[in-house]
Amino acid sequence: MLDVQDLSKNYGETRALEGVSIGFEKGTIHAVLGENGSGKSTLVKLLSGIVMPSRGRILVEGRPLTAFTPAAMQAAGLATVFQEVLLAPDRTVTDNILLGCDGLLKRNIPRGRRRDVAAEALSRITATPIDLDAAAGDLPLAIRQLIVLARALARRPRLLILDEITAALDFGDREAVFRTMEKFAADGGLILFISHRMDEVMRLAARISVLRNGRLVETLARRDTSPDALLRLMAPAAAKELAHAG
Ligand SMILES: Nc1ncnc2c1ncn2[C@@H]1O[C@H](COP(=O)(O)OP(=O)(O)OP(=O)(O)O)[C@@H](O)[C@H]1O
């Protein structure tokens, strides 16, 4: 469904991503693991059209993308939820969920239906009651995180990129978000899941790609690996130290 081939990004002398090739399959939760600075955010930014690749290709359903802009990525069916919660603080929860939906979708939602569409998107990811008319900026971080996830889902993407989104969530909301992720994949979508948390990765991901120093170390099936083995792939030196300390 999504392939990156020889994908590279340089910032001056820094090789943030170097020759990374990964095939992502539909109906899968695919995790990308790596230490700070390993290139995870750079991969997400490339797939979101925020930065241009220095080299390499991105293919969706076998077709190489020719434009690298957020609009082009959205048109190809990708939606990203970023680590930093980006929303319009003075606008209502409803406005924020429908904000950025493409023009077509906006025109298709009559005024009176806007709140229903927003409520439906939120109900898919949380049982927490959220005031749809509140200014988004006045709400706690966890709620704001759910709003940006609801916004991504309202666009009905085929491919959802989740970049470290669970940190702010409490247990109940996190479980609700996991169930939504599993359903999204079961319905044939692809989730690219960026997380530091090994427990989340081992629980959710069917496939795992490990990055180190901007390079792909390996892509493997979860059933063929273990947290210890993944740690060794992510950071061989640290894993050795841990083993000695133990
Ligand atoms: N805009 C930039 N200008 C210069 N160097 C950058 C820029 N963005 C990232 N880098 C460098 O590229 C490398 C990869 O960074 P990246 O943010 O992709 O890693 P990461 O795995 O996402 O880390 P983190 O978990 O801290 O977000 C790092 O060495 C980083 O310092």
Essential attributes:
binds adenosine-5'-triphosphate, 6-stranded mixed β-sheet, 246 residues, 2 domains
Describe this structure in words.
The structure is a single chain. The protein is α/β, with parallel strands linked by helices and 246 residues long. It folds into two domains: 2-77 and 158-245, P-loop containing nucleotide triphosphate hydrolases (Rossmann fold, 3-Layer(aba) Sandwich); 87-156, no CATH class. 37% of the residues lie in helices and 25% in strands. The protein is built from ten helices and ten strands. The longest helix has 16 residues, at 171-186. The chain is globular and about 60 Å long. The N and C termini lie far apart (42 Å). The chain binds adenosine-5'-triphosphate. Residues 2-238 form the ABC transporter domain. Keywords: ATP-binding, Nucleotide-binding, Repeat, Sugar transport, Transport. It comes from Labrys monachus.
Total number of beta strands: 10
- What share of the residues does DSSP label as strand, in percent? 25-35%
Termini separation (Å)? 42 Å
Overall geometric form: globular
Sum this structure up briefly.
With 246 residues, the protein is an alpha/beta fold.
